[in-house]
Fold this protein.
Amino acid sequence: MSITDDTVSLSSSQTDTQSAPIAASFPPDFLWGAATSAYQVEGAVHEDGRGPSTWDRFAATPGATYEGQTGEIAADHYHRMEEDVALMSQLNLNAYRFSIAWPRILPQGTGTVNERGLDFYDRLVDALLAHGIRPVPTLYHWDLPLALQDRGGWVNRDTAYAFADYAEIVTKRLGDRVDWWLTHNEPWCTSYLSYALGIHAPGLRDQQLAIVVGHHVLLSHGLAVPRMRAHLSPEAQVGIAIDFYPAYAADDRPETLLAVQRADTFRNRWFMDPVFRGKYPETLFNDLGVNPPPIHDGDLAIISTPIDFLGVNYYSRMVVQNRTNGASQAEQPVHADTEIYEALAHIPGSSYTEMGWEIFPDGLANILMRIHRDYAPKAIAITESGAAFNDHLDGNDSVHDPQRVDYLKAHIQAISEVIRQGAPVKGYFVWSLMDNFEWAEGYRKRFGLVYIDYPTQRRIIKDSGHWYAKFIRQQRES
Ligand code: FCB
């Protein structure tokens, strides 16, 4: 994808996926999964020796989350783990992506290991394997032990070394049975959303800190990979999950094309270039008007330690224009992550999810082909893809979510196309297995294949879950 290829006509018709059959066949060992993360589903935040995390503190801060909601109970998965694994089996999943809560394993972030924390994930792994479901753990999905935050969190370089120790402790315990691993989830969110935009824990607003954080997160990833491999079989797959927002141009003005380039560097290349090329994109720090992070000798070699697969999290695209003062050029409402571009908030003719994210399956195909061409990871898994809609439980204990069925069909169709074109895509994980605590949005955004009736914690498979189960079964039989 060259920058100019990204220019789209805003009136161009998009893939019409309504009820389109999926004319796709996937390899028999393709991973059909769903994903969750610890703080979003587990609850039980005070149990079995778990220490506090940054999210416990952040969610308790007035105004930080919708109606002050927290992950204290969440989907009560910690107590309902067996039932939830049985649900996965009913959905015909052959893979499950979950995250491990660092504060359950090391309540103080470093030092004494809490065996009861490890025991929980041990039992989860065994339950998954007993159902023929491949465990795909992520070591860090944003719940940093509070003790480490109190020492600066990811701004402190020591946190990178603490992460590598933690990664080794977990792989040593589970590595005999788990062979797909992710170090981090979405370093852009860990850095920018959390330390510059203040939307996620720890809720800081300082671009310079976000750059430092990004570097330490990358360093922690690179330090962890060999420490993990020491306890894994040679066939094990170790990767990182990065979030992508392909950038399209709102028009063909030269300044728009430059804005697209800046947006792309910031949202898609910041973490990819160091991991796959051992260097930061040249213009990143200048564009943002910040200083480079403190890079020690050898850091970039560590960060670019070869990985076995890339996790791609994809939800939507951006249609970008140059930043304007006053009325926008395209006369559309705009929003911006930074000063360096504006993204149109509404594209005429497009549909949006409850998160306000444009539904744009072509963007997934586009970013996958571009990753394949520009970075050539050995393998790729879509580690998150999904949508929040306004789901309701009806009187017959059903949840009709046809929009989510269409969403899944369209995105799976896009993947089949890129596989046909040669991209090494090995798996697809729907976000999410079940409704859960959607961070600052609380429980009001429902992403699940399974509906959670929070007052009773009853689980009800939505129509999309039934559709996915049937689709996976057909794949298996074909
Ligand atoms: C991703 C996060 C995941 C969930 C989805 C909707 O950015 O990784 O935890 O919140 O968005």
Observations:
- Residues 43 and 76 are 5 Å apart (CA to CA).
